Amino acid sequence: MPEPIPVESSTISKDILDTNNPPAEHDFPALREFVARGSARRAVLDSKISLLKAELDKLLEERNALDVEIQKHEGAISPLRHLPTEILSIIFMYAVQFSFTHQHSMDMKSGPIPLSAVCSRWRRIALSQSSLWTFFPLNFEEAMPELVPVEETLSAVKIHVDRSRDAPLKLVFMPFYEHRITDLEQQVLDLLTPHVARWEEVVFYGTPAIYESLCTWSAEFLALRKLDITVYDQDEFLELDIRNVFAFSPRLEEAFVNIRTSDNTPVVFSLDTSSLRRYGAQNPWRRHVDVLRLASDLVDCVLSVTGSFDPFGTGDKISLPRLCRLAVTDVNPLHVLDTPALRDLYCSKHTADLHGRLRELPRLRKLFVGEPRIPVDLQSFMHSVPALTALCMYLPMNYASALFELLDSSPSLGQDQDTPHLPALHTLGLCFGPENYATLGEPIDQDELMGVVEARWRGGQLRSFQIYVMRFAPSESTLKRMEALRQEGMKFVLETHSMHLYQRMVPPDFCLYDDEYAMVDLMLE
């Protein structure tokens, strides 16, 4: 049967084909002829398409099968397959640690569980490495309780507990609610509490009621090295007493209590201080004294003092001969602490009596001070810290000119009376805010600012300068001078938010300052 030739274009008018207008009587033969010829041609095309589809399906099937075989053969020669077990173990540990710090909670699709499902070799390596299974990221804050897969979460916890065998455990527990815990969260705790002797690093948030339940464990935290707990505030709890919980933790090196958030329930606790090197807490001063008297080997200390401060109730000075870094909410603890080795100090309040305390710290090299609550003498301040190498200050704008004048000198003069302030300073952070909450005050003199920075940089010491000025609008000339310093190799950062500068200059564990400039900035937007 001859193949129908392609159908020629219709001779029928578009007025008929593209509308609902009825055709004329003489158009019917041509219409019928086109339908007949078109149908025959369409049948031929359908037949060809069917044959080609069948052929295409065969080709795709062959191609896909070949693709699988190629991948298998490529896998056989892949360097990954020939990696030593020791290298794979390191890679697995890195992946699991990254997952621990970034995932919200536990499930069957994260952590080492997927690694153990790739192939038999990876499974053997994962199961033989008990340390892979020691991470328990239990952050329930990010998802509504009804959206958390209960069975999957519990299964993941059980698997990790079993496969970690006797290895020390690392826990992060953060409940969804501040006033209670959910049934799932309680079930997870019930799975973990029989293994408290293996808890090595613990970050724990919760209500006072949760911590009260800890008192019933009567456990010995034999492996505990790092403890970080936060007790949410509840009106019915004036003070939480958990002195019996962590009293026996002979390996404890680091303890932070209520230091991550504000307005927490005060906690009475006892710590095994025989190995304690880092301590931080938000508590009344008398509670701090109980720990500091026994922790003479502290290297880092963070003291957020609540309530009134009674230095006379402290007794003799507290000696901390090895303390290198200290954060305090105000100057008061410095009156009763003997810290001859102190290098870094982060003090949230700048008061006049701070200067006298600074003179007693000859090894001090890094200093942060918050906004002055009352007028302070900047020259007296400069004289009290002559050996500083890093300084970060919060100041009202009306202090700017006096500060620039004190800093504006070359660090190369010889006589004592002519020696510039802070001659060794290589890192400087300045945060300028309003004189009061009603007005920003006079803008800083940009030419004076840049002159000081340029002189310090070219004098040979200053290497890093970071500044935030509320509602700062640098001129084109100022921007060019900033860029010129960057091109010469100086780190010059113009911050857009005061908190960014604070976070650059102060390590996270030492952040106590309540940045009011940030709040004012928001109100003025």
TrEMBL record:
The keyword Coiled coil appears for this protein: yes
Gene3D superfamilies tied to this protein: 1.20.1280.50
InterPro entries in the cross-refs: F-box-like_dom_sf
Keyword Coiled coil: yes
Disordered: annotated segments: 1-22
Lineage top rank: taxon: Eukaryota
Coiled-coil residue windows: 42-76
Keywords: Coiled coil
Bias (Polar residues): 8-22
Protein name: F-box domain-containing protein
